[in-house]
Amino acid sequence: MKTIALISTTGGAGRTTLTSALAVLLARRGRPVAAADLDPQNMLGAHLGLDSFAQVGLGQAMAGRVEPWRDHTWRNADGVLFAPHGETTLAERTEYESRLAAKPRWLTDALAQIDFPPRGVVLIDTARFPSQQAAQAIAAADLVLCATPLEPAACATLARRFARLHQSAARVKVVVNRLNPARDMQRDALALLRAAVGNALELVHRVHFDAAVPESLARGGWIFDDVPHSQASHDLHGLANWLDAWLDGDLADSAEPAP
Ligand SMILES: Nc1ncnc2c1ncn2[C@@H]1O[C@H](COP(=O)(O)OP(=O)(O)O)[C@@H](O)[C@H]1O
Ligand SMILES: [Mg+2]
């Protein structure tokens, strides 16, 4: 079983969108898939089909209030097993963050309890990096996908934090999300990012902007079902295919597309 953390240095970068879409696309390729929500926004469940926000989940487990956390998991229509964050108060989050700081491998140990075959994969949606939640996810991960829109604030924070991220993570791949090649500003932002992270950008994957992404979410569907021939659907399938091959361990770095 391998673990993939979805992180970002700004909010709204697409962590939850990518976690849920990739979980479903990998499940449809026949993989056992689990998804864990470590973001107090508690949105992963909504993306994966819950009608209302789960009250109890990993947030309460991290605070030491429920045990075992596996009793608070769900399975979506595509067979993805998922653990919502749950609704937490500020006091509960303060409590669990200090517990996490004292137990840097809490999540690694918790995920080891999932009885998954070697082909299985766990995707982790996190709070923004840096945070206790992101640190736990990175510590547990074999691969870190760092989502970023090509906007100045997002690229500047990623550029500033990339070195630290790179030191702490097994392997980092940048996913540029909401790409709109018609906007000059995005080309400038990519140049800024490239100057800051250098060769690591050879690990970039791109997902184009498409208004159908939030529209499909609002209808409880997926862009790759609603608009299967769109560029964004093609990009998501491309990333899922890359991950599928990476999970089988047969993809060399040199085979990755340049940005
Ligand atoms: N490729 C995309 N094209 C258009 N909208 C997108 C795309 N990816 C994400 N979004 C939208 O951007 C918003 C933020 O995405 P979300 O996944 O919630 O970010 P995060 O979890 O990083 O905060 C959501 O409304 C989502 O539907
Ligand atoms: Mg989110």
From TrEMBL:
MF annotations from Gene Ontology: ATP binding; ATP hydrolysis activity
UniProt-listed Pfam families: CBP_BcsQ
Keywords assigned: ATP-binding, Nucleotide-binding
Recorded superkingdom: Bacteria
GO CC terms in record: cytoplasmic side of plasma membrane; cytosol
GO terms under biological process: negative regulation of cell division
Database matches in InterPro entries: Cellulose_synthase_operon_BcsQ, P-loop_NTPase, ParA/MinD_ATPase
Residue ranges of coiled coil: none
PANTHER family registered for this protein in UniProt: SEPTUM SITE-DETERMINING PROTEIN MIND HOMOLOG, CHLOROPLASTIC (PTHR43384:SF6), SEPTUM SITE-DETERMINING PROTEIN MIND HOMOLOG, CHLOROPLASTIC-RELATED (PTHR43384)
NCBIfam families cross-referenced by the UniProt entry: cellulose_yhjQ
Protein name, per record: Cellulose synthase operon protein YhjQ
